[in-house]
Amino acid sequence: MSDSFDLLVIGGGPGGYPAAIRGAQLGLKVACVERDKLGGVCLNWGCIPSKALLKTAELAHAIRDADRFGLSTGELSIDYAKVVERSRKVSRRFEKGVGSLFKKYGVTQIPGTATLTGPGAVTVSGADGERQLTARHVVLATGARARSFPGITPDGERILTYREAIVLTERPPSVVVLGAGAIGMEFAYFLHAMGSEVTVVEAQPEVLPLEDAEVAAEVRKAFTKSGITVKVGTRVQEVTREGDACAVTLGDGTRLDAHTVLVALGVTPNSDALGLDAVGVRTDARGFIEVDASHRTSVTGVYAVGDVCNAGPALAHVATRQAHVCVERIAGHTVPDVDPTAIPSCTYCQPQVASVGMTEAAAKAAGKDVRIGRFPFVANGRSQGSGHPEGFVKVVIDNRYGEILGAHIVGADATEMVAEFVLARSAEATAETLMTTMHAHPTAAEAMLEAVAKASGESVHI
After folding, report:
1. What is the pLDDT of residues 342-365, one digit of tens each?
2. Neighbouring-strand partners of residue 255
3. Nearest-5° angle of CA 221, CA 224, CA 230?
4. Mean confidence (pLDDT) of the chain
5. Using an 8 Å Cβ cutoff, are 16 and 138 in contact?
6. Which of 53, 131, 362, 429 is deepest in the core (most CB within 10 A)?
7. ∠ CA 433-435-441 to the nearest 5 degrees?
8. Which phi and psi angles does 37 have, rounded to 5°?
9. Is the pLDDT of residue 70 over 60?
10. Distance between the two ends of the chain, CA-based, in angstroms?
11. Is the sign of the CA dihedral 2, 15, 35, 280 positive or negative?
12. In this structure, are residues 207 and 185 in contact, taking their beta carbons and an 8 Å threshold?
């Protein structure tokens, strides 16, 4: 087998495997090196299995609430191990699917750990020893891992990261979740639905600190109402293991006791073992690989996409889009840059949160002259009929041109709805365009039209 390729991709996650497949579709001879499972964290320990778990959580809530819909059920019984096993089956199916796509398009799959050893040269260490590869173009797509902090050392048993938590086969009776970003809030929602006593601790003044403040407050109120304890503006000093339990010491000296602690405090890039220094690939102070708009690094012929680089938020869909841009340009095609203002952000707890573009605070801080439109789902027929009238749609619109600067949704179907606003931003659609776009009735999506109309003083339903 030849060890020389046109394109060599290191990492088989949502940045790596699309890069490899697209490269093969464009006629390049491609190989992909992956040290673990194809699909990376997203497919195996993140996006995909977590959404399977969250669907179970939604069903559990629906069953407990069945009487409101005129239905009677017995007491809910949860087989936690079976819940998790279903999520693992979903992941295994998609992992096999990536392997099948590699075969379909002629991508050479190479198991092992890759290290850059020179210009276009890579050494792969695997179960069968070392293998030397060369390539005209090398794409680094090694992703990221859970970030650690002083005084907080995960042990994989009681002090967990997402990677261990996603495969637990026994429900922890009590959990302290450190971090109220998307990962922390999703796990908190799921574990509480399964019957765990849950406390969320966040150092920032509000949960989901990157989201619009009104939206984040709505989620926090919903969590508190459901019985989840939420502590914002609270720092963690130390986490210790005490036998079969854990103690969390907060900044003010307060102690929280729990069976399990989940550390969800961000990620750090998997760039430290790639041999970057040996070939001169530059990283920033945090270890993220520096890239330009074409995802070229400081070394000719070496590129980086996804969570390992400094070009955007650590999201699977960002990695995939970056991979397409990178490989298309390697093949000589002209494609637009990844637009940072058109990146959707989604959190899949209930109520769901989805957004794109600027928050109201960011727009005003940037000196924008804006008008704000809000429309509550309580005034939406479809949402009322489905039993999910909580939440709202909020839009931030530029007064001068009618540009949709940002859109923020909190509600049962937010993550499915946000695509319309992403398309609007990508297509440079104005508020007027959305207001004159017919939306089917009754749908939750009508709330998006109504929010835009409200910002323009033309809503007839509120």
Report:
1. 999 999 999 999 999 999 999 999
2. 249
3. 100
4. 96
5. no
6. 53
7. 125
8. -100, 140
9. yes
10. 68
11. positive
12. yes
Instruction: Give dist(CA 422, CA 419) in Å, integer.
Output: 5
Which active-site residues does the annotation give?
441
H-run or E-run covering 354: strand 352-357
Q: Which residue has 């835009």 as its token pair?
A: 452
The strand pairing partners of 269, in sequence order, are: 144
| Closest to 175 (Cα-Cα) out of 151, 195, 197 | 197
What is the number of other CB atoms lying within 10 angstroms of the CB of residue 201?
24
pLDDT at 407: 98
Strand order across the 245-250 sheet: 236-242, 245-250, 255-258
Burial class (CB in 10 A: 0-12, 13-18, 19+), 102: buried
CB atoms under 10 Å from CB of 155, counted, come to: 12
Domains and CATH numbers, the chain: 4-146+268-340 (3.50.50.60), 159-265 (3.50.50.60), 351-455 (3.30.390.30)
Q: Per residue in 220-277, pLDDT tens?
A: 999 999 999 999 999 999 999 998 999 999 999 999 999 999 999 999 999 999 999 9
- Estimate the crossing angle of helix 16-25 against helix 80-105, to 10 degrees: 30
Residue 83 in contact with residue 60, Cβ under 8 Å? no
Distance (Å, whole) CA 285 – CA 280: 15
Whole-Å CA distances, 246 to 60, 114, 155, 178, 337: 28, 37, 11, 13, 46
Half-sphere exposure of 241 (CA within 13 A, CB side): 12
Q: Give one word for 312, left, alpha or beta, with left for phi > 0 and alpha for psi -120 to 50.
A: left
